[in-house]
Design a protein that fits this description.
binds pyridoxal-5'-phosphate, 17 strands, Aspartate Aminotransferase, domain 1
């Protein structure tokens, strides 16, 4: 019997090592990784320059407390702000913690304006994490059920529906912020309209609300830009990052700009591990390699190649509803639950994911080659066809 707490329905496979977009299991079988540990392994596995940078840092200093100056944090914060246009960064260890920081920041921002019970607008089908505040902000009953009482102070509206947000603005004087994913990941690779995001920015300005973007899954080059909001020309007040930032080393970040800056003062928020020298080296090296190897342009082009490949191979297949996404954040929606495809693909040496019951989700590492993407299509498309005909 396993002594690991039973929180995941795990697939019966154990990996021992990897290289690039490939993983090997304990039997020596090779798998093409089209999931990257859910958008985490930005640089694939065992990237030589990344590994060398981490090894060097481990030999010098892994951790020192946030009661001291941490040079790596300064460098990574500088880099993130330079790339995003944001102004200051709080470092955490994960996405939910980055969102906790954002939620706390929004509440404190409200309190400073005399709003005693501030609330935050969140979206249907949103996913923001598994801590109590972030599961309360999440728009999925399965994530919340059994954990009531939920954290209060969230107002839910449909995704991509500006009128719904305007309605709340008219009736609810306690709102201080909107928290939204530019592309919903767990919710099924659903993208906000550019026009919606521009008008939401405008509305947040008019209402003096913080626009808070959860880019935990869609950030760090995956969509072909550093951050998904950069497809729109707007700047958020708060942005959260995690998954892909450390290429597998846990690191999260909550960034603030404009009216959100300066909200936290010493004592308001903290983390023991957050932003330690190892995590910051992982973040900084990931960003540098994305830049040096032009991986964003590659993500954009490869994403188009993969979507075009699906469109050609699945043309006319009954029940294939939509092929969508941006860059290397790709969803194929079917008209029936398709969780079984994950096991079928695994048997054929391909790692994929299914989310929102009926959406095949692909989040390959940014280093996947076009040849490997073709191999992925060659395995997956026949599986989908067979599955839809059965
Ligand atoms: C994964 C995810 C989170 C939670 O991140 P953890 O590191 O698992 O806490 C939050 N928001 C989004 C959009 C995510 O995809």
């Amino acid at each position: 019997m396993s002594h690991v707490m039973n929180t995941y329905a795990r697939l019966p496979v154990t990996f021992t090592h990897g290289e690039g977009a490939w993983l090997w299991d304990t039997d020596g079988k090779r798998y093409l990784d089209a999931l990257s540990g859910i958008a985490v392994n930005t640089l694939g596995h065992a990237h030589p320059r990344f590994t060398a940078a981490l090894a060097e840092q481990i030999g010098k200093l892994i951790h020192c407390s946030n009661v001291y100056q941490v040079a790596g944090q300064e460098s990574l914060a500088d880099k993130l702000c330079g790339l995003s246009g944001m102004q200051e960064v709080f470092f955490s260890n994960s996405g939910c913690e980055a969102n906790e920081a954002a939620i706390k920041l929004a509440r404190m921002y409200g309190h400073k304006q005399g709003i005693e019970s501030p609330s935050i607008i969140v979206m249907e089908k949103a996913f923001h994490g598994r801590t109590l505040a972030t599961l309360s902000a999440t728009g999925n009953r399965k994530v919340q059920a059994g954990f009531e009482p939920l954290v209060t102070g969230f107002v839910r509206v449909p995704y991509n529906d500006l009128d719904a947000v305007r309605q709340v603005a008219q009736h609810n004087r306690s709102v201080v912020a909107v928290l939204v994913e530019p592309i919903q990941g767990e919710g099924g690779i659903r993208t906000l309209d550019i026009e919606y995001l521009k008008q939401l920015r405008q509305l947040c300005n008019e209402q003096n609300w913080l626009l808070m973007l959860d880019e935990v899954q869609c950030g760090i080059g995956r969509t072909g830009k550093w951050f998904a909001f950069q497809h729109t020309g707007i700047l958020p007040d708060v942005m959260t990052l995690a998954k892909g930032l450390g290429s597998g080393v846990p690191v999260g970040a909550c960034l603030a700009a404009g009216k959100a800056t300066g909200t936290f003062q010493p004592g308001n928020h903290g983390s023991t591990f957050g932003g330690n020298p190892l995590a910051c080296t992982a973040g900084l090296t990931t960003l540098n390699i994305i830049e040096q190897d032009k991986l964003m342009a590659h993500a954009e082009a490869l994403g188009q190649f993969i979507r075009a490949g699906f469109a050609a191979a699945l043309q006319g297949v009954n029940g294939v509803k939509e092929i969508r996404g941006q860059g290397l954040m790709i969803g194929v929606e079917l008209d029936k639950p398709c969780g079984d495809l994950v096991k079928l693909a695994l048997a054929q040496g391909l790692l994929i994911n299914v989310t929102a019951d009926s959406v095949i989700r692909l989040l390959p590492p940014l280093v996947m080659s076009q040849g490997e993407a073709q191999q992925m299509l060659d395995i997956l498309c026949p599986l989908i066809k067979e599955f839809m005909h059965s």
